[in-house]
Structures are given as C-alpha cells and as structure tokens.
Amino acid sequence: MASEEPGSTAPAPAATAGPSPAGPSPAGATPPTLLDLSTYLLSRTGKAARSRLADRLARRGLRLWDMAVLAALADFGPHAQRDLVRRLGVDASDMAKVADQLALAGYVERVRDAADRRRLSVTVTEAGRALLAELRAEALAVQDEVLAPLSGTEQRVLHELLARIHAELPGTP
C-alpha cells in the first residue's frame, strides 16, 4: 500500500449501489450523489428562496414578475413595454397582464408614445417605488432566513461568487 503525504486527503470512495453498510437511509434523505453537485445545491437553494419570497408576495396579491417590473423601471427608468419583455425575458402577453395589474393598482403609469401609437411607455410611480422598497425588505428578510447558516463574511463571499457566475451566464445583460 502506498503511503500518503502529510496533509493530503484520500480520494473519496466510489459510490456504490444499494443501501449503505450502516443500513437504509431515511426516506427523505437526499442522495449523496446529488449533494456532491454544486449545481443541484444551487437549484434547491434557489427554489426554496424563490418559494419563500413568492409566498410573501402572494400575501400582498403580488407575484415575482410584479417585483421584477418595478425593479427594472426603478433601476433603469421608463421602458417601452416591449423592451421590458426583452430585458426580463417574460412572454409579451404575460408582460401585458403584469403591466395592466400594476397600472390598475397605481404602481406604474403607461402612456402611448406620440410618435408611435403602438408603443406603450411604462414608468414607475411614487407608489410603485414605495411598494418596491417594501418588497425589497421582504426579499432581504427571505435572504437572511436562507443564508442564516452562514456568517456575514461567508454571505458576502457567496454573493461575490454568485455575481461572478451570473455575469458569465449566456444571455445575461
């Protein structure tokens, strides 16, 4: 048997089929093969966070798209409705419904472009900005819940790493 250098780690044992020698794992246990995949962990964590935020927004009669539209308008200024479709990657008919509901509630204003009557310009209102601030607080509360197992430093590092990955994703503006 070859000796190992100090400080080195032995390779992980190969996965085996069937129950572990210690006996069957609990029915709700996640397979270790999946737990070894960072992409799986990102997906599960993202789904949990999204679900928690969606539940909080639903209590207000809102959806994640509502928050996304308000954020885009607050961050980037007025948009043609079709440009919001492209920026947020939402279906045009879904965007029309979101914009209709936000306009009806007074959170956005939509006006026809004088030069092109087919074009609708969407602008966030002061009520929409106030709502967005409340929704951001809800999102930060969910973030605090989900990231609670991490220290503040670990949370900042995680954010920096995710931002780097996000910046390199295909199709990310």
What are the defining features of this structure?
three-stranded antiparallel β-sheet, 173 residues, mainly alpha, disordered N terminus
Helix content: 55-70%
- Supply Rg: 23 Å
Amount of beta strand = 5-15%
Uncertain residue segments: 1-18
Give me the strand/helix succession.
HHHEHHEEHH
Largest sheet data: 3 strands, antiparallel
Question: Span between N and C termini?
Answer: 53 Å
Q: How many strands in all?
A: 3
What spatial order of strands do you see in the largest sheet?
A: 1-3-2
Mean pLDDT: 87
- The total of helices stands at 7
Describe the structure.
The protein is mainly alpha-helical. It is 56% helix and 7% strand. The protein contains 7 helices and 3 strands, in the order H-H-H-E-H-H-E-E-H-H. The protein has helices at residues 32-35, 38-58, 64-76, 81-88, 92-104, 126-146, 152-168; strands spanning 79-80, 108-112, 120-124. Strands 1-3-2 form a 3-stranded antiparallel β-sheet. Helix 2 (38-58) packs across helix 6, helix 3 crosses helix 6 and helix 4 crosses helix 5 (92-104). The longest helix has 21 residues, at 38-58. The protein is elongated. The N and C termini lie far apart (53 Å). The model is unreliable at 1-18 (pLDDT under 50).
